[in-house]
# Entry
Amino acid sequence: RVREKLAKAMGVDTDSLTLKDGMAIGDNRSVPIGELVGKESLSAVGTIKPGAQEKQFNQASYGAHFAEVGVNVVTGEVRVRRMLGVFAAGRVLNAKTARSQCLGGMTFGIGTALTEELIHDPRTGKLVNHDLAEYHVPVNADVPQLEVHFLDERDIHANPIHAKGIGELGISGAAPAVVNAIYNATGVRVRDMPVTLDKLLDHLPAL
# Structure
């Protein structure tokens, strides 16, 4: 609807209008969008409703995580050395905030894999470690340089703007990637997160 209003103000057909880098382009003319809007604000309200394609196509977002860890064979201490996340989330509308969302999710994944554990008192069911002194979240020293890459994708079946949600995409698979890296480094398979020292020490190869 915004495109229709801009096309009408420019005197061109809506289908021939291209909006790029602050310019409206159509019929071999290029006009700043600000000139078309003028002093008045330009707004439009639209809705998107699920259609037949919702049942014909899988519209999920996808991602893959890669992690490299170092494990001290004496102490069992684990350090994440490198981590990479590659994601396909349709058309990314804001690259900076999308990247930040995935960086946060990957950091959550490191915490899930290595430090974060809620402990309940079996007698009362109350949380024992309900503060940041005893519920350990990753700090700057725990998080290496993280890389985030988005695949260039426009999902034409998702919606008219070809975008899909990111949401929990950054954390889905992040913790298992770290745990799998520990297994690759030590041969010890831990299935109960977080992977704390007591779960590794007795199974580490002897020096």
Summary: Residues 95-114 form the longest helix (20 residues). Residues 20 and 37 are 15 Å apart (CA to CA).
